[in-house]
């Protein structure tokens, strides 16, 4: 577990109701939004929903992912492209929605095409550990990593309106074995993920709240201003007065 000065972030964040379809094996859960901050998603209010909307492929997002791939890796074969197009899907999650809850079996690899996603682990005292926060051009997995069946003990939440290109873990493993170009892409994305993790750690190495605010807003210039004050305060472990003071100083200097 990491604290503000270490590798994990202890926060208290807003929660939203969770749901999951139990029909036909593991599928991405559809979630209902809530309106309070507190100790985590109340399981007693969870509903089982499956929205056809989430199963509708988004061609533009998929094409953007393919362009990202071809811009970073040369000599892509038609068969590699056809494999990824055949087995991946595009999902759209609105800001605030929980994609998965702790203990869910959600064996999927997700490339973030747009938006931002954060992981949260709720503790018994109501605090939350945030292991990672990723934005467009990075990835996350619904299991501990893409090569294990171990369930993640985290809630995964969209912080912004988010589009992901999603591939089942076993198909990702198969693609890496069959196509060198896909293996290259995964290695590139792993490096980008390390860089994004480093940016988040830099925020929480700061001991002063106002400095954390400044670096957080500098690091996430599009995302941070859109987040509610209560959520930023919870993430950065600062008071509302510190938030207001830091915000005034931040924009006064720009």
Task: Provide a descriptive summary of the structure in words.
It is a single chain. This protein has 254 residues and is an alpha+beta fold. 36% of the residues lie in helices and 21% in strands. It has seven helices and twelve strands. The chain has helices spanning 59-72, 78-87, 169-178, 180-204, 209-219, 229-236, 240-252; strands at residues 10-11, 14-17, 32-37, 89-93, 98-100, 108-114, 116-122, 128-129, 133-135, 139-141, 155-158, 162-168. The strands form three sheets. Strands 1, 5, 7, 8, 9 and 11 form a six-stranded antiparallel β-sheet that branches. The chain has a four-stranded antiparallel β-sheet with strand order 4-12-6-10. Strands 2-3 form a two-stranded antiparallel ribbon. Strand 7 (116-122) and strand 8 (128-129) form a beta hairpin. Helix 5 crosses helix 7 (240-252). It is globular. Mean pLDDT is 78; it is low at 1-57.
Secondary structure layout plus pairing:
Elements: E1 10-11, E2 14-17, E3 32-37, H1 59-72, H2 78-87, E4 89-93, E5 98-100, E6 108-114, E7 116-122, E8 128-129, E9 133-135, E10 139-141, E11 155-158, E12 162-168, H3 169-178, H4 180-204, H5 209-219, H6 229-236, H7 240-252
Antiparallel strand pairs: 1-8, 2-3, 4-12, 5-11, 6-10, 6-12, 7-8, 7-9, 7-11
Helix pairs in contact: 3-4, 4-5, 5-7
